[in-house]
Amino acid sequence: MANVTFSSPKLAKDITVYAIAGDRGTILNLAKANKVPIPFDCQDGECGSCLVEVTHLSPTTKNAIALTEKEKELLKQLGKITKEEIYDAEVNDMPPRYRLACQCFVRHEDIIVSFEGDDTVP
Ligand code: FES
After folding, report:
1. Res 58: pLDDT
2. Cα of 23 to ligand 1 centre, how many Å?
3. Tell me, what's the pLDDT at 119?
4. Which of 64, 87, 88, 116 is most exposed by smallest CB count within 10 Å?
């Protein structure tokens, strides 16, 4: 089961999407396919526009957390990930709090994806 709930001040109410195997892809792709307005730009892990907070609803489920070098570097630059979180992700499969929606793949688990919207973008 993979219910992905999108939550944001930009949305009138939360949107929950059931992501089936095969059309999962990244959180950003799933959002776009369901008209959820997560801001994005490069779609390649370089700009940080698509920063989201991911809450895992079954924290006991371990899913090898794949952070690309790009995602790690950018999250570090944005001050959104600590060394400890990187270690936990790589060694203990513990998900960090913030992810880049264009780099984070939807897994076989329920999550809440929160984003602020683009108020800070001129
Ligand atoms: Fe640029 Fe995701 S859209 S980092």
Report:
1. 79
2. 20
3. 56
4. 64
Q: Interface pTM (ipTM) of the complex?
A: 0.99
* Domain layout of the chain by residue ranges: 3-114
Judge if the beta carbon of residue 49 lies within 6 A of ligand 1. Answer: yes
pLDDT in tens, 46-94: 999 999 999 998 766 666 677 889 999 999 999 999 999 999 998 988 8
Residue 65 CB less than 6 A away from ligand 1 = no
40 lines ligand 1 (CB under 6 A): yes
Q: Which residue's alpha carbon is nearest to atom 3 within ligand 1?
A: 43
- Extract long-range pairs of 96-99: CB within 8 Å, 24+ residues apart: 96/65, 96/67, 97/53, 97/54, 98/51, 98/52, 98/53, 98/54, 99/27, 99/51, 99/52, 99/53, 99/54, 99/71, 99/75
